[in-house]
Specification:
The protein has 332 residues and is mainly alpha-helical. It contains 14 helices and no strands. It has helices at residues 2-5, 8-40, 44-56, 58-69, 73-97, 107-133, 139-160, 162-169, 179-206, 220-232, 234-245, 249-272, 286-305, 310-331.
């Protein structure tokens, strides 16, 4: 058993089977999330932005707190930032897969991406303050400011999504009773959380297992940005794919945008749990990933603004995936 746990290919196989299960469970959770939106009258986008985003961000939360508790700051930031850009690439991939449908990024989602850019800009500044000026930032003041911004984003997102709520009330589709919706949704959400935790455990084991033939382990930040980021983004991939397949595009878009914002908040909260000045310990190469996320988020906003040209949107989504691949080259 010990040798299997230290075998690279065995760990990859475990991740593969966990991913298959998450895809099935994600389909059921997407169904009940859709029913929850209809039976409560709450906007599907709002459910995706807050509720589903928090559930699918559990792997990032677990991996970040475990990494910071072991003072692996490069792994923590690499996992969060890498997951954010993977999430955006996943969304573009889903848009390309369902290119025959009329998919669009709505006004509320543009605000969500812009809000993510605002928080990302603050985090980017924190990454550069210490390397440039050697000034240690007070993490408590910074966390308070970011928390205020986050609350403002939540409030404004709720206001923007009221229009979609009114549209949902006009739908005539069959709706399950609320009691038959909440319990299954909580049940499948719990399975997603448990499987996500398992993914993090397996992924962390992969950071210490040498790659066959290569004979070495990968760097801390690269492992975080690639292996950990991709593994912890599997719940977003599964749920968003199934949600779009069921016709709730805006819920899927808000799931990605909300997950990215929540991931940054996880990083902020993690900074409060470390005895050291957290932001001064961040590897400088994290700025490359921050810059790439900034560009990709801006491209998402442009796609949402330019809705008339479908060819342009498909080109931009392809460009986003290429930028993600290029970011991996920079980090490596």
């Amino acid at each position: 058993m010990y040798s299997l746990w230290h075998n690279f290919f065995v760990l990859m196989t475990i991740i593969f089977f966990i991913t298959l299960i998450i895809f099935y469970v994600g389909d059921r959770m997407a169904f009940y999330a859709d029913q929850l939106a209809k039976s409560t009258g709450i906007s599907g986008a709002l459910i995706g932005f807050i509720l589903i985003a928090m559930i699918t961000s559990v792997p990032e939360m677990v991996s970040t707190f475990v990494a910071t508790s072991n003072q692996l700051y490069g792994l923590a930031t690499g996992g969060v930032l890498g997951s954010n850009i993977v999430n955006l690439a996943i969304l573009s991939g889903i848009f390309l897969i369902f290119r025959d449908r009329e998919l669009e990024i709505k006004r509320s989602s543009i605000f969500s991406f812009l809000s993510g850019l605002l928080l990302l800009a603050v985090v980017g500044i924190l990454f550069t303050v210490y390397p440039v000026s050697k000034v240690i930032v007070n993490k408590y003041y910074v966390s308070f400011i970011i928390l205020v911004i986050y609350i403002g984003i939540m409030y404004h997102s709720f206001s923007l999504n009221q229009e979609e709520q009114e549209e949902q009330e006009k739908e005539q589709e069959e709706i399950l009773p609320l009691g038959k919706t909440i319990v299954p949704f909580i049940f499948y959400s719990g399975i997603i959380i448990g499987l996500s935790w398992g993914l993090v455990v397996v992924c962390q084991q992969m950071t210490v297992v040498p790659i066959p033939i290569y004979g070495k382990t990968l760097g801390e930040h690269f492992v975080g940005t690639l292996i950990l980021a991709v593994s912890t983004s599997i719940p977003e991939l599964a749920t968003s794919y199934q949600i779009v397949r069921r016709g709730q595009t805006n819920m899927a878009v808000e799931n990605i945008a909300g997950s990215n914002i929540f991931n940054l908040m996880v990083l902020v909260v993690a900074s409060l749990t470390t005895p050291s000045p957290f932001w001064s310990e961040i590897p400088i190469n994290s700025l490359y990933t921050v810059f790439m996320i900034f560009i990709v988020s801006l491209l998402m906003c442009i796609i949402g603004l330019v809705r008339e040209s479908k060819k342009f949107s498909l080109f931009m989504h392809g460009l986003i995936i290429m930028i993600w691949l290029y970011s991996l080259v920079l980090v490596f």
